[in-house]
Amino acid sequence: MKVETFETPQDAAKALAGEVAELIRTRAAEGKNVVLGLATGATPLPFYAELVRMHKEEGLSFANVISFNLDEYSGLDRDHPESYWYFMHTNLFNHIDIKPENINLPSGTVKDDEIAAHCAAYEQKIKDCGGIDLQILGIGRTGHIGFNEPGSDDTTVTRQVHLDELTRSDAAPAFGGIENVPTTAITMGVATIMGAREVALMAWGEKKASIVKKAVQGPVTVDVAASYLQKHPNAKFLLDKGAASLL
Ligand code: F6R
User: What's the EC number here (predicted)?
Assistant: First the structure.
């Protein structure tokens, strides 16, 4: 696992967006698609802003991009302002030329008795598209990647999970109180993420420093899902100075 430290989140996001743009353009020149795994949350916002800028100012086309998001809150429909569907469209998809049929997110409104089939179909669709070329990640203060909370081992695939109380309390301000934060979500598993050919995890600020240290320098453990990335052949952490401050 590589660690790269940048002065600011914007610097890191620009570097990563530049790599993604190159991958997209190289594949486009070969007449091929790129499969991106995408994350939501505050962390990737400067990365998405840079991709939008490159589309608008430099003509970067996303016509050959297929996207799979990591996760979605259970119980939220697409129009809910805190749904990840809404987040992705507001912050990225509505501003670029990705084909709507190439956008994939788990559904927050699938019926209980259809969740297992929905998750299996999501895994299968990733495989049918040739697997994920590059998976973008943030990290939660529980060490989660996607919503793989402590206890998620490296055999886990897309499934419904219970959200950790720390994760719910971190989300509470956006929902106007912890009582409004969903208790469950559908997430890709650790094995799904580890199956990506390349992984890039971003983290900003001192609030993330101690969990970043555990993920990068601690033991590989089921208690910190991000620690499994130490075993990935092509994973890197892009950090700002605050997030890297305990390394
Ligand atoms: C989001 C996701 C989560 C977040 C993590 C960090 O799709 O899967 O793992 O990346 O909770 O969230 P922020 O970036 O808001 O600190």
Answer: 3.5.99.6
| Total number of domains constituting the chain | 1
87 CA distance to ligand 1 centroid (A)?
12
| Closest by CA position to 79, among listed 113, 41, 37, 107 | 107
Separation of 43 CA from ligand 1 center, angstroms? 7
pLDDT tens digits, one per residue of 38-84: 999 999 999 999 999 999 999 999 999 999 999 999 999 999 999 99
In this prediction, residue 72 carries a pLDDT of: 98
Identify the active-site residue in 50, 144, 232, 240. Answer: 144
Give residue 138's domain range. Answer: 2-240
22 catalytic, yes or no?
no
Is 186 a domain residue?
yes
Task: Say if 246 falls within a structural domain.
Answer: no
Asked whether 215 lines ligand 1 (CB < 6 A), one says no
Condensed to tens digits (0 to 9), the pLDDT of residues 114-139 reads 999 999 999 999 999 999 999 999 99
Spacing, Cα 25 to ligand 1 middle (Å) = 27
Low pLDDT (below 70) residues in the chain: none
The residue whose two tokens read 């979605």 is 72
- Helix 9-29 vs helix 45-58: angle between axes, to the nearest 10 degrees? 50
Mutate to test the pocket of ligand 1, among 139, 148, 181, 224 (most ligand atoms within 8 A of CB): 139
The domain that contains 233 carries what CATH number? 3.40.50.1360
> How far, in Å, CA of 87 to CA of 155, rounded?
28
**Could you tell me if 186 and 228 are in contact, meaning their C-beta atoms sit under 8 angstroms apart?**
no
Tokens linked to 227: 């620690």
